[in-house]
Amino acid sequence: MKKFLPWIIAVVVIFGMYSYVKGINNNAITLDQEVQEAWGNVNTSYQRRNDLIGNLVKTVKGAADFEKSTLEAVINARSKATAVTIDPTNITPEQLAKFNQAQSGVSSALSRLLVTVERYPDLKANQNFLKLQDELASTENQILTARTRFNEAVKPYNSHIKIFPNNLFANMFGFKEKAYFEAVAGAEKPVDVEFDFGNDKEETK
Fold it and tell me: Is the pTM of this model over 0.85?
């Protein structure tokens, strides 16, 4: 029995190591899937905004003499934003910064368009436009929520693969740290799509 004892100990140690490393890998996979799901929700929210912008542009185009440059700015910003794609399995700070910057450009262009609408009473009374306005406000809130939940999913993943000794095995299995979604200046605020009809009436008297 004694001559087999070293072998038994070795088998127990090897099995213990295998179970430990397997746990690190499986937990990393689970957390990574949660990050990918959260990123999918971010993309879905932005896609909804893109779709609404398309409908908004069609509605605004019907207004006589509406500023062409303002519409083109929105269209171009949306086009640039949709061209920026990210692989959720390898989200780097550079990729996320580029994505964030492109989406911020959409927000800025959209905000300018909505402010310009103030000068078009017919548009402000257009029921289709008012509906789109409400949907855009709701979507901006959804985007903010999706970004927050993405960061909440990234935090436990990064913590899991960075702590010692998990980091030794995580690198071996190809798990890399993911970037957090950081807002650019002003991006943390939803696009203002509220109109002050009271002030407008006073100004037009």
Answer: no
Domains and CATH numbers, the chain: 2-204 (1.20.1440.20)
CA distance 113 to 200: 17
Asked if 104 and 187 touch (Cβ cutoff 8 Å), the reply is yes
Q: How does pLDDT run along the chain (205 residues), one tens digit per residue?
A: 677 677 777 787 888 888 888 888 899 999 999 999 999 999 999 999 999 998 888 888 776 567 788 888 999 999 999 999 888 888 888 888 899 999 999 999 998 888 888 888 888 788 888 898 889 999 999 999 999 999 999 999 999 999 888 888 888 888 888 988 876 544 444 444 443 333 443 433 3
Q: What is the rounded distance in angstroms from the CA atom of residue 173 to the CA atom of residue 24?
A: 10
